[in-house]
């Protein structure tokens, strides 16, 4: 039976599971809708399962199809790796990669874009914002090709994904350089008395992990603005007496406009990592881009040096 399996059928199944639509799958496969429909009939017979159930908004995979998806991707990726050239040359590589992460990490990678364009002129990088509404479904988004690589907290990733640790992120309190606060050390009493800007990916909320910590100490702060972007928060801080809590790595890059203080309370470090799906695990292009990103993020931290040495009193 194994010797009679048609590889084209498996490629069709992979595409159908990614697209969940016969017409879209046909376009992706450079085939016709009737041909793909006929192949789906054969696949259902082969696996003795409906695999995909038609619905009002596309097709829904059966439990059997969901079980097959990661194993199928691993099998086909192994075959692709087998027939691909051993040597990967970024100068001639072609392709696009979608990366999900927050705007702080996007800013840290900004200098890398120019280098990438020189090293791999045929490679396109697209960013999508990863937040609490998308990270829980990250495996599904990766399997369907909506995103190829996600950089976020390590704890957000399911065990089934491939994960590469990057760094532990710490945080500081930031404010504009000519802010009226002039003390050499930020006290907890002064911190809670200030007016705050908080950054949450979804925006519109007024409590984060800092508020949870303060609540445990019987304290609270006044949050006056909630924004979904650190870049927006930085613009607000430059024009007000508000303060905010920023990742140390991002605050380092904003030293020309913002000064920073160590937090007067203990905020746990966040372990950041990148994760990817078995679908792209063996791709030479994806592997090369992952290596480049990891190197850039680590080099950026080394060049910035000790964050405590850059704190402006």
TrEMBL record:
<dbReference type="Pfam" id="PF00126">
    <property type="entry name" value="HTH_1"/>
</dbReference>
<dbReference type="InterPro" id="IPR000847">
    <property type="entry name" value="LysR_HTH_N"/>
</dbReference>
<dbReference type="InterPro" id="IPR036390">
    <property type="entry name" value="WH_DNA-bd_sf"/>
</dbReference>
<dbReference type="InterPro" id="IPR050389">
    <property type="entry name" value="LysR-type_TF"/>
</dbReference>
<feature type="domain" description="HTH lysR-type">
    <location>
        <begin position="5"/>
        <end position="62"/>
    </location>
</feature>
<keyword id="KW-0805">Transcription regulation</keyword>
<protein>
    <submittedName>
        <fullName>LysR family transcriptional regulator</fullName>
    </submittedName>
</protein>
<dbReference type="InterPro" id="IPR005119">
    <property type="entry name" value="LysR_subst-bd"/>
</dbReference>
<dbReference type="InterPro" id="IPR036388">
    <property type="entry name" value="WH-like_DNA-bd_sf"/>
</dbReference>
<keyword id="KW-0238">DNA-binding</keyword>
<comment type="similarity">
    <text>Belongs to the LysR transcriptional regulatory family.</text>
</comment>
<dbReference type="Pfam" id="PF03466">
    <property type="entry name" value="LysR_substrate"/>
</dbReference>
<keyword id="KW-0804">Transcription</keyword>
């Amino acid at each position: 039976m194994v010797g009679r399996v048609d590889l084209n059928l498996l490629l069709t199944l992979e595409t159908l599971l990614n697209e969940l639509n016969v017409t879209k799958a046909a376009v992706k496969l450079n085939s016709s809708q009737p041909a793909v429909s006929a192949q789906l009939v054969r696949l259902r017979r082969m696996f003795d399962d409906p695999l995909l159930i038609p619905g009002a908004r596309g097709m829904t995979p059966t439990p059997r199809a969901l079980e097959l998806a990661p194993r199928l991707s691993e099998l086909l990726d192994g075959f692709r790796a087998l027939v691909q050239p051993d040597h990967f040359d970024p100068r001639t590589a072609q392709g696009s990669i979608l990366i999900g992460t927050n705007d702080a990490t996007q800013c840290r990678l900004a200098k890398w874009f120019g280098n990438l364009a020189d090293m791999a002129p045929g490679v396109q990088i697209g960013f999508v914002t990863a937040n609490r509404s998308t990270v829980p479904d990250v495996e599904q988004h990766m399997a369907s090709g909506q995103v190829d690589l996600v950089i976020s907290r390590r704890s957000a990733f399911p065990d089934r994904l491939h994960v590469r640790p990057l760094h532990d992120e710490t945080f500081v309190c930031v404010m504009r350089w000519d802010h009226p606060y002039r003390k050499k050390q930020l006290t907890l009493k002064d911190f809670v008395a200030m007016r705050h800007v908080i950054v949450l990916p979804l925006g519109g909320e007024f409590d984060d992990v800092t508020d949870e910590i303060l609540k445990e100490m019987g304290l609270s702060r006044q949050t006056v603005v909630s924004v979904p972007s650190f870049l927006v928060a930085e613009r607000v801080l430059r024009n007000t007496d508000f303060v905010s809590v920023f990742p140390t790595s991002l605050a380092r890059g904003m030293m020309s406009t913002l000064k920073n203080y160590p937090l007067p309370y203990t905020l746990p470090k966040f372990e950041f990592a990148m994760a990817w799906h078995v679908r792209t695990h063996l791709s030479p292009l994806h592997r090369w881009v992952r290596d480049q990103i990891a190197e850039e993020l680590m080099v950026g931290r080394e060049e910035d040096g000790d964050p405590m040495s850059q704190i402006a009193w």
